[in-house]
Design brief:
The two termini are about 15 Å apart. This protein folds into two domains: about 160 residues, Rossmann fold; about 180 residues, Glycogen Phosphorylase B (Rossmann fold, 3-Layer(aba) Sandwich), CATH 3.40.50.2000. It is built from 13 helices and twelve strands. By secondary structure, it is of the alpha/beta class. The strands form two sheets. Strands 2-1-3-4-5-6 form a six-stranded parallel sheet. The protein has a six-stranded parallel sheet with strand order 9-8-7-10-11-12, sandwiched between helices. The longest helix is centred in the last third of the chain and has 17 residues. The mean pLDDT is about 95.
Length: about 350
């Protein structure tokens, strides 16, 4: 039987509440369902003497997450290399650059690299010099606990957070690539009855450039009263998050760049029309089931207005089709394809 050690460090850090935590948790859960593989967590007290493969589900460009010396065959997941695409907005510093060179060297000694999209695969080849033959594209899936919610549940969550009946939704972080200022500016081109709801723990005043950009855009667009920042919707509060998705006019993914884009599938699962930037991996994840537009406020607003004019039957047809599309992305499939990589690595 194949024995695989999975590094569960991301589950004990700030990544636990992000996509990396979701990836690690869901992959582990599905891998543990297989009878022909023994999965060991790196945090487990009793480690077996023989390990066939070690899997690091996270790669940090500027911190030592990989060792150059490899005692066991190693698989590493690189979700994206966004800081290398926008280096002026993700300064590494002197120490970070040194660690980057060390991390890049360590990659030469891994047996395989897994990534989330064809877009990320191209970036990894270009920026990290990993041979194409070593890289395996394995798609992710939405949160299994999210489900479309009833009108009652939607009304309840709206009341709890004092939200209006009409709003567009964003779920995620405030990093530069997320393009939040353009998302906020979108409200300038929409009727005053339509608000914006942003869910994420980092939508709170901090002495960082990203928050400064948010504040500046709120002032410039004069839409502060129409923006709602929900910072305490917890990862495991899936009923609340489902209701927030379900009650939206549309979900907007405004990103300039993404390695995957899990919220697109989450919104589709909750039967909400999706508007997304036509960039990077987002076109792969969306397929023909999102309104793909340029990442500008005007384009997002035009898409919202278009959706708002749909008849009830058109909206229902659209979300039903998108829901079927997102069902083709499953964590079981992610685990099956990941297991194949382990087997390939172990047999060489």
């Amino acid at each position: 039987m194949l024995t695989v050690l999975i590094d569960t460090l991301p589950l004990g850090t700030g990544h636990a509440a992000r996509g990396i935590g979701s990836y690690t948790r869901n992959l582990l859960h599905e891998l543990e369902e297989f009878n022909d593989i023994s999965v060991v967590k790196s945090s487990a007290e009793d480690q077996p003497k023989h390990i066939d493969v070690v899997h690091y589900p996270f790669f940090d460009l500027f911190f030592d997450t990989l060792s150059v010396i490899r005692k066991v065959k190693t698989v590493v997941t690189i979700h994206d290399v966004i800081p290398l695409i926008f280096p002026e907005f993700y300064p590494a510093g002197v120490k970070g650059k040194l660690r980057f060179n060390k991390q890049k060297l360590a990659l030469k000694f891994v047996s395989a690299v897994i990534t989330d999209s064809e877009s990320s695969k191209k970036d990894i080849i270009k920026h990290l010099g990993v041979p194409e033959s070593k890289i395996h594209v394995i798609y992710l899936a939405s949160n299994p606990s999210l489900e479309p919610q009833s009108e009652y549940a939607i009304a309840k969550v709206r009341k709890k957070y004092a939200l209006p009946k009409q709003y567009v939704l964003y779920v995620g972080d405030i990093n530069y690539n997320k393009n939040i200022p353009q998302l906020i500016k979108t409200l300038k081109f929409l009727p005053e009855s339509i608000h914006l709801v942003c869910v994420g723990k980092n939508f709170t005043p901090e002495p960082i450039p990203e928050w400064k950009w948010v504040e500046q855009q709120l002032a410039l667009s004069n839409v502060g009263e129409r923006v709602h920042f929900l910072t305490d919707v917890l990862v495991d509060a899936t009923d609340e998050l489902s209701a927030l998705y379900s009650g939206a006019i549309a979900y907007i993914q405004p990103s300039l760049y993404e390695g995957f884009g899990l919220p697109l599938l989450e919104a589709m699962k909750c039967r909400v029309p999706v508007i997304s930037s036509n960039t990077s991996s987002l076109t792969e994840v969306a397929g023909d089931h999102a309104l793909l537009v340029e990442p500008t406020a005007e384009a997002f607003a035009q898409a919202v207005l278009s959706i708002n004019e749909w008849s009830k039957s058109k909206r229902e047809r659209w979300v039903a089709s998108a829901s079927s599309w997102q069902k083709t992305f499953t964590w079981k499939k992610t685990a099956q394809e990941t297991k194949k990589v382990y087997e390939q690595v172990a047999s060489h």
